[in-house]
Design a protein that fits this description.
The chain has 354 residues and is mainly beta. The chain folds into four domains: 145 residues, no CATH class; 50 residues, no CATH class; 52 residues, no CATH class; 58 residues, Wheat Germ Agglutinin (Isolectin 2), domain 1 (2-Layer Sandwich). Helices cover 11% and strands 33% of the residues. The protein has six helices and 29 strands. The strands form nine sheets. Strands 2-13-14-15-16 form a five-stranded mixed beta sheet. A hairpin with a 4-residue loop joins strand 21 and strand 22. The relative contact order is 0.12.
Length: 354
Amino acid sequence: MDCAISRKKDSGAIFHMPIVSSDMFLGSILRTIEVKEGNSTKMLEKYHTDLSLVLMDDSTAQDLVCNACIRPINSPPYYTCGAHSQCNFLLHKFCVDLPLSIQDFLYTSVTKNLISPRLDEFFSLFRCCSCKKYCNGFGYVFGGSDSIFVDDVECSFAPRVIKHDSHKHHPLILTDTSSGIESWKSCCGKSCFYGYCCGLCNFTIHIDCARLPKTVAHKFDKHPLTLTFASSNSTDIDDICEFCEEDIDSKYWFYHCAQCDQSFHVKCIPSQGEFSKIKFGGSVKVPCHEDHPLTLARMMNLGSQRCGYCHEIIKGFKDGMALHCQDCDFWIHFYCGYRSCHGNISPPYKVYTL
């Protein structure tokens, strides 16, 4: 099969987790990939059609997010749009080298093709088959443009074998767990299509939980929060999440600050929540509010608002999306913005281009 990607024969790397940085981890994986010559040019031509992307070496820029993998750009070099100052289209240098097609990491006879959000459709997004998170970045699709089976960039390049501090005795192997495993008692208790399994023990963790960083930051605590694994002896509710003020079940992983004795659900960490693979900040004009553009906002750190379209409450301090007019403080649900533009129908999980 003439596929645009293959693992280097001599790589054979076993990645040790938890990771330190999501973008550094993805970059280290992609550097073990052999990419066909000229692939970078094809990427730039296909997904930013005015050919205005320029390579930047600015180490002072902050709060940059890659449009492909939806991960922070913490260091140069990276690509940015040089034609339009308001474009905000950015790519890691290693994401420019993403192959246009890959073989599935488990079913190697299956080819997956790179897709990106439609540039003319603000509401483009899909739900990743592997981690179940919503994403408006690039992805790899099984089959044609009408397929609902899409993996985001990060999940598409998940390593086959890892060693994880939560199970130090044996390596864990990436496995199709869509049948035979009802729950994920080792990490979060939820079901998942792919996971890392120990062939010798009854131990399995999510593909997404395996990638949780060793430490994270949260504005409610001045110290780094440390990933805390489930206690095999604990079956009770042991703590309260400082963010949502709901119970933390210590059978599952959470983040903790030992200095302040504060704990947080994984889902309450902005960089790890359900909408952590959405790039926020883009703007769109919708028919129900034609005077000003609306900006895509994340509700995780915002209070509740009243939707100007359906007049229901937009729940605040919950991980979700909404559209906000900064000029007149007008708010609508994300899906109400879609309905305003496309009629009174629910938005699709995917609107993208091959």
